[in-house]
Amino acid sequence: MSRIYDCADEAARKDGIADAASAVRRGELVVLPTDTVYGIGTDAFNPRAVAGLLTTKGRGREMPPPVLVGSMRAATALIDDLGSHGRDLMEEFWPGPLTVVCAATPSLSWDLGDTKGTVAVRMPMDPVALELLKETGPMAVSSANKSGRPAATRVDEAVEQLGEEDVAVYLDGGATESSVPSTIVDLTYAVPRVLRAGAISVEQLRAVCGTVIGEPRRSPARSQEAAGEEAREADGTGQAPEKDIPQSRD
């Protein structure tokens, strides 16, 4: 059975962070709040744990999770090349709803799925998430919902979808402040490219790094219903499914 901690209570929050950190070290799954929606996460360097996360979500290896970090230093250890503007973007918008996709450090001993050599990284602006991440190190985190269903903005929504069999710990940080997903920027090209529009506007990005290629236009034949489904599945730590991007994340 899962253990649920009310992080509005100082003592419960302390106990919950400790329990969640221990669970992550054991390769178990935990649910945590972020500054967008709730996420389900585990040790990014434990392939079995990451596989379990994808199974619980109902996802395959073609949809690898992004990685949440508790500091810029932790992020740069995962990234082989930030490009010309990566550090400026991180300094301006982190912690916050910006996910950067970069070439991953080749020597990393992990298996997030079919990443094509990239990693999507974000530092969330949520005190509970940051406290946990500073205890655990980088975590593979996906939105706390079953594939095809809306992302959870309250812990009870996550419990309803994910149950108490696969998740060791739920950290209840209250209702999330926003359901708008993070903006995802691909830095593997010479010019930054928006893979998904989100909380950080293209104008804000351009104020930092000049030229930015906007989000690709969707096919006119694409239905609003399908587009809305992707938006509901996309959380604040990664990206909605696309066929032509180096790393997928819901």
From TrEMBL:
Q: Which residues form the YrdC-like domain?
A: 14-200
User: What's a GO biological-process term for it?
Assistant: tRNA processing
> Any idea which UniProt keywords this protein has?
ATP-binding, Cytoplasm, Nucleotide-binding, Nucleotidyltransferase, Transferase, tRNA processing
Residues the record lists as binding ATP: 59, 118, 143, 196
Q: Where are the annotated segments for Disordered? A: 211-250
Please write the reaction equations for the catalytic activity of this protein.
Answer: L-threonine + hydrogencarbonate + ATP = L-threonylcarbamoyladenylate + diphosphate + H2O
EC number of the protein: 2.7.7.87
Note the InterPro entries from the entry.
DHBP_synth_RibB-like_a/b_dom, Sua5-like_dom, T(6)A37_SUA5, TC-AMP_synthase_SUA5
Question: Where is this chain compositionally biased, Basic and acidic residues type?
Answer: 229-250
Class in the EC hierarchy, top level: transferase
Q: Which residues bind L-threonine?
A: 36, 122, 182
Query: What does the UniProt entry say about where the protein is found?
Result: Cytoplasm
A GO CC annotation given for this chain: cytoplasm
Gene3D superfamilies listed in its UniProt record: DHBP synthase (3.90.870.10)
Q: Which GO terms describe its molecular function?
A: ATP binding; double-stranded RNA binding; L-threonylcarbamoyladenylate synthase; tRNA binding
Family membership noted in the UniProt record: Belongs to the SUA5 family.
**Name this polypeptide is given:** L-threonylcarbamoyladenylate synthase
Originating organism: Nocardiopsis algeriensis
